[in-house]
Protein backbone atom coordinates (compact mmCIF):
# COMPACT_ATOMS: atom_id res chain seq x y z
CA UNK A 1 0.00 0.00 0.00
CA UNK A 2 1.22 3.48 -0.82
CA UNK A 3 1.90 5.60 2.25
CA UNK A 4 0.45 8.73 0.73
CA UNK A 5 -2.87 9.45 -0.93
CA UNK A 6 -2.70 12.79 -2.70
CA UNK A 7 -1.69 16.04 -1.09
CA UNK A 8 -4.11 16.03 1.78
CA UNK A 9 -3.72 18.42 4.66
CA UNK A 10 -3.93 16.93 8.12
CA UNK A 11 -4.61 18.61 11.45
CA UNK A 12 -3.11 16.94 14.49
CA UNK A 13 -4.05 17.60 18.12
CA UNK A 14 -3.69 15.97 21.52
CA UNK A 15 -4.22 16.64 25.20
CA UNK A 16 -1.45 15.92 27.71
CA UNK A 17 -2.25 12.20 27.56
CA UNK A 18 -1.57 12.13 23.84
CA UNK A 19 1.26 14.64 23.70
CA UNK A 20 4.14 12.18 23.26
CA UNK A 21 2.31 10.04 20.72
CA UNK A 22 1.35 13.19 18.82
CA UNK A 23 5.01 14.12 18.44
CA UNK A 24 5.88 10.68 17.15
CA UNK A 25 2.99 10.77 14.66
CA UNK A 26 3.91 14.28 13.56
CA UNK A 27 7.42 13.09 12.65
CA UNK A 28 5.94 10.08 10.88
CA UNK A 29 3.52 12.14 8.78
CA UNK A 30 6.11 14.76 7.90
CA UNK A 31 8.50 12.03 6.82
CA UNK A 32 5.92 10.85 4.30
CA UNK A 33 5.37 14.36 3.00
CA UNK A 34 2.01 15.15 4.56
CA UNK A 35 1.17 18.76 5.16
CA UNK A 36 0.42 18.77 8.90
CA UNK A 37 -1.03 21.50 11.10
CA UNK A 38 -0.08 20.81 14.72
CA UNK A 39 -2.58 22.53 17.04
CA UNK A 40 -0.94 21.31 20.26
CA UNK A 41 -0.68 20.51 23.06
CA UNK A 42 2.92 21.59 23.03
CA UNK A 43 3.89 20.06 26.36
CA UNK A 44 2.56 17.38 28.69
CA UNK A 45 1.18 19.70 31.35
CA UNK A 46 -2.40 18.74 32.29
CA UNK A 47 -4.92 20.16 29.85
CA UNK A 48 -8.45 19.45 28.59
CA UNK A 49 -9.13 17.25 25.56
CA UNK A 50 -12.24 19.24 24.43
CA UNK A 51 -9.97 22.22 23.71
CA UNK A 52 -8.00 20.18 21.18
CA UNK A 53 -11.12 18.60 19.73
CA UNK A 54 -12.35 22.13 19.05
CA UNK A 55 -9.11 23.21 17.41
CA UNK A 56 -9.04 20.12 15.20
CA UNK A 57 -12.73 20.50 14.28
CA UNK A 58 -12.27 24.15 13.38
CA UNK A 59 -9.45 23.41 10.96
CA UNK A 60 -11.60 20.84 9.18
CA UNK A 61 -14.73 22.97 9.15
CA UNK A 62 -12.76 25.88 7.67
CA UNK A 63 -11.29 23.49 5.07
CA UNK A 64 -7.75 24.28 6.20
CA UNK A 65 -7.41 20.54 6.71
CA UNK A 66 -9.19 17.60 5.14
CA UNK A 67 -8.59 15.05 7.89
CA UNK A 68 -7.70 15.18 11.57
CA UNK A 69 -5.91 12.98 14.05
CA UNK A 70 -6.89 13.61 17.65
CA UNK A 71 -5.29 11.90 20.62
CA UNK A 72 -6.07 11.64 24.31
CA UNK A 73 -5.43 8.93 26.88
CA UNK A 74 -8.13 6.57 25.66
CA UNK A 75 -9.37 8.29 22.49
CA UNK A 76 -12.86 8.27 23.96
CA UNK A 77 -13.14 11.81 25.30
CA UNK A 78 -11.57 13.17 22.13
CA UNK A 79 -14.12 11.32 20.01
CA UNK A 80 -17.11 12.39 22.11
CA UNK A 81 -16.03 16.02 21.95
CA UNK A 82 -15.15 16.07 18.25
CA UNK A 83 -18.49 14.57 17.24
CA UNK A 84 -20.31 17.55 18.76
CA UNK A 85 -19.11 19.73 15.89
CA UNK A 86 -21.15 19.85 12.69
CA UNK A 87 -19.47 18.11 9.81
CA UNK A 88 -17.15 16.09 12.03
CA UNK A 89 -17.30 12.32 11.77
CA UNK A 90 -14.87 11.06 14.39
CA UNK A 91 -14.19 7.63 15.80
CA UNK A 92 -11.74 5.82 17.98
CA UNK A 93 -9.96 3.20 15.88
CA UNK A 94 -7.37 0.97 17.40
CA UNK A 95 -7.07 -1.34 14.42
CA UNK A 96 -6.20 -0.69 10.78
CA UNK A 97 -9.37 -2.29 9.38
CA UNK A 98 -11.66 0.20 11.12
CA UNK A 99 -9.39 3.13 10.28
CA UNK A 100 -9.58 2.29 6.56
CA UNK A 101 -13.19 1.19 6.39
CA UNK A 102 -14.34 4.12 8.53
CA UNK A 103 -13.17 6.42 5.76
CA UNK A 104 -14.24 4.27 2.80
CA UNK A 105 -17.80 3.66 4.02
CA UNK A 106 -18.53 6.33 6.62
CA UNK A 107 -16.40 9.24 5.41
CA UNK A 108 -14.75 9.49 8.83
CA UNK A 109 -12.70 12.68 8.88
CA UNK A 110 -11.21 12.54 12.39
CA UNK A 111 -9.29 9.57 13.70
CA UNK A 112 -9.14 9.40 17.50
CA UNK A 113 -6.43 7.44 19.23
CA UNK A 114 -5.80 6.48 22.83
CA UNK A 115 -2.14 6.94 23.62
CA UNK A 116 -2.55 4.75 26.72
CA UNK A 117 -4.09 1.99 24.64
CA UNK A 118 -2.05 1.62 21.46
CA UNK A 119 1.70 1.51 21.03
CA UNK A 120 3.52 3.91 18.76
CA UNK A 121 4.15 1.49 15.90
CA UNK A 122 0.54 0.32 15.75
CA UNK A 123 -0.61 3.94 15.91
CA UNK A 124 1.53 4.72 12.85
CA UNK A 125 -0.04 1.84 10.92
CA UNK A 126 -3.52 3.01 11.92
CA UNK A 127 -2.75 6.58 10.84
CA UNK A 128 -1.41 5.29 7.53
CA UNK A 129 -4.59 3.28 6.90
CA UNK A 130 -6.73 6.34 7.76
CA UNK A 131 -4.79 8.80 5.61
CA UNK A 132 -4.50 6.53 2.58
CA UNK A 133 -8.20 5.63 2.51
CA UNK A 134 -10.75 7.48 0.41
CA UNK A 135 -14.54 7.66 0.77
CA UNK A 136 -16.02 5.32 -1.84
CA UNK A 137 -19.15 7.41 -2.25
CA UNK A 138 -21.53 4.55 -2.97
CA UNK A 139 -25.21 5.54 -2.97
CA UNK A 140 -25.99 3.51 0.13
CA UNK A 141 -23.09 5.11 2.00
CA UNK A 142 -24.32 8.57 1.02
CA UNK A 143 -27.87 7.67 2.04
CA UNK A 144 -26.67 6.66 5.51
CA UNK A 145 -24.58 9.78 5.91
CA UNK A 146 -27.56 11.90 4.88
CA UNK A 147 -29.53 10.35 7.75
CA UNK A 148 -26.74 11.21 10.17
CA UNK A 149 -26.64 14.75 8.84
CA UNK A 150 -30.36 15.01 9.55
CA UNK A 151 -29.68 14.01 13.16
CA UNK A 152 -27.05 16.74 13.28
CA UNK A 153 -29.47 19.34 11.88
CA UNK A 154 -32.59 18.35 13.82
CA UNK A 155 -31.35 16.66 16.98
C1 LIG B 1 -6.90 12.69 30.76
O1 LIG B 1 -6.29 12.20 31.91
C2 LIG B 1 -7.77 11.65 30.13
O2 LIG B 1 -8.97 11.59 30.79
C3 LIG B 1 -7.95 11.96 28.67
O3 LIG B 1 -6.72 12.01 28.03
C4 LIG B 1 -8.76 10.96 27.87
O4 LIG B 1 -8.34 9.67 28.11
C5 LIG B 1 -10.22 11.08 27.93
O5 LIG B 1 -10.94 10.32 27.28
Descriptive overview:
It is globular, with a radius of gyration of 14 Å. The N and C termini lie far apart (39 Å). It has a single domain, classed as Ribose 5-phosphate Isomerase B, Chain: A (3-Layer(aba) Sandwich). It has a five-stranded parallel β-sheet, with helices on both faces. By secondary structure, it is an alpha/beta fold. The chain contains six helices and five strands. The longest helix has 16 residues. Helix 2 packs across helix 3 and helix 4 runs parallel beside helix 5. Bound molecules: D-ribose (RB5).
What distance lies between the first and last C-alpha atoms, to the nearest angstrom? 39 Å
Shape: globular
- Strands ordered across the widest β-sheet: 2-1-3-5-4
CATH-level-4 superfamily name: Sugar-phosphate isomerase, RpiB/LacA/LacB
The CATH level-2 architecture is identified as 3-Layer(aba) Sandwich
The top level CATH class name? Alpha Beta
Rg, nearest Å: 14 Å
Number of strands: 5
> Which series of helices and strands comes N to C?
EHEHEHEHEHH
CATH topology (fold) name: Ribose 5-phosphate Isomerase B, Chain: A
Low-confidence stretches: none
Largest sheet: 5 strands, parallel
Tally of alpha and pi helices: 6
Beta-strand residue percentage: 15-25%
**Tally of distinct domains:** 1
- Helical content class: 40-55%
Computed structural class: alpha/beta
Bound molecules: D-ribose
Rounded average pLDDT? 96
